[in-house]
UniProtKB/TrEMBL annotation:
This is Membrane associated serine protease, rhomboid family. Its main location: membrane. GO terms for molecular function: serine-type endopeptidase activity. It comes from Actinacidiphila rubida. It is a multi-pass membrane protein. Pfam families: Rhomboid (PF01694). It comes from the Bacteria. Residues 117-249 form the Peptidase S54 rhomboid domain. One of its GO terms (biological process) is proteolysis. It is found in: Membrane.
């Protein structure tokens, strides 16, 4: 049974509207128009006027193009894929996630791996996809647009980018820790982080979570049952993105920046530490 939400100033009035700045429930009498949504009278009085700068639910700035960075991420992935078609498998081997390559009779001598100092792979691998077929890229980019664009709008650009890249690092850490012997590529680990963040957002806003939970379960089943799919990367990205989103969306207002960026920094350190330990074990 859903809990009844009432205006914070008028407990006898039910409402489905919340202040876009502090998230308090407000009735029509307590709404003050903002450039995006409505603000409560407390937020307006704190700013000393009838208009305050609109913010996302996570405290980010409202951008003129709320989907710009999602478009840029998609463009970068497409650009790398075009380069793959032009250069061939060499690019995927040089940029993909690999702990340590093998050298010896009959073995490839491409690149080396993270164990040989190529730490850029923990991020560049998230921009490489299978070729020549565009199916892998197409599926990931559609998911990035459907899931990522709304999150960028709701979190703000800086927080969205932090979520994406920290999720990608968490995905790489899980792969290095669990399956260090396989070459892993694709943006799906970071996208699973966005899935987790979407679930946290819907919980935070008290929306019906059944659609996103069903979609997430289907993707997890796909990850564990299909061949050549890195369930390790998907799970690592999901866990990392979920934790980062909890820090961003449930941070207390008076310490919002500290909690949000502290959570991102903590998960960044954990991801790199797990990666370093995994690589050290492979080297030894």
């Amino acid at each position: 049974m859903d809990q009844t939400v009432c205006c914070y100033r008028h407990p006898d009035r039910e409402t489905g509207i919340r202040c876009t700045r502090c998230d308090k429930p407000i009735c029509p009498e307590c709404m003050v128009n903002a450039s995006v949504g409505f603000h409560c009278k407390d937020c307006v009085s704190q700013q000393g006027g009838t208009h305050v700068q609109a913010r996302t639910i996570a405290g980010g700035s409202i951008a003129a193009d709320p989907f710009l960075f999602t478009k840029i991420l998609i463009g970068l992935n497409v650009l790398v894929f075009v380069l793959e078609l032009a250069i061939g498998d060499r690019l995927a081997l040089d940029l993909g996630l690999y702990a340590k390559c093998s050298h010896g009779p009959g073995t490839p001598t491409f690149g080396c791996g993270v164990a040989d100092g190529e730490w850029y792979r923990v991020l560049t691998s998230a921009f490489v996809h299978n070729q020549p077929s565009p199916v892998h890229l197409l599926f990931n980019m559609l998911s990035l647009w459907w899931i990522g664009a709304p999150l960028e709008q709701r979190l703000g650009r800086a927080r969205y980018l932090a979520l994406y890249f920290v999720s990608a690092l968490g995905s790489s850490a899980a792969v290095l820790a669990i399956a260090p012997g396989s070459l892993t590529i694709g943006a799906s680990g970071a996208i699973f982080g966005l899935f987790g963040a979407t679930a946290v957002y819907m919980r935070r806003m008290r929306y019906d979570m059944r659609p996103v939970v069903a979609l997430l379960v289907l993707n997890l089943v796909f990850s564990f049952t299909w061949a050549n799919v890195s369930w390790q990367g998907h799970l690592g990205g999901l866990v990392t993105g979920t934790i980062v989103a909890i820090g961003m969306l449930y941070a207390p207002r008076n310490r919002r920046d500290l909690v949000q960026w502290g959570t991102c920094a903590a998960m960044l350190v954990v991801s790199l530490a797990v990666s370093a330990i995994a690589v050290a074990q492979v080297t030894s």
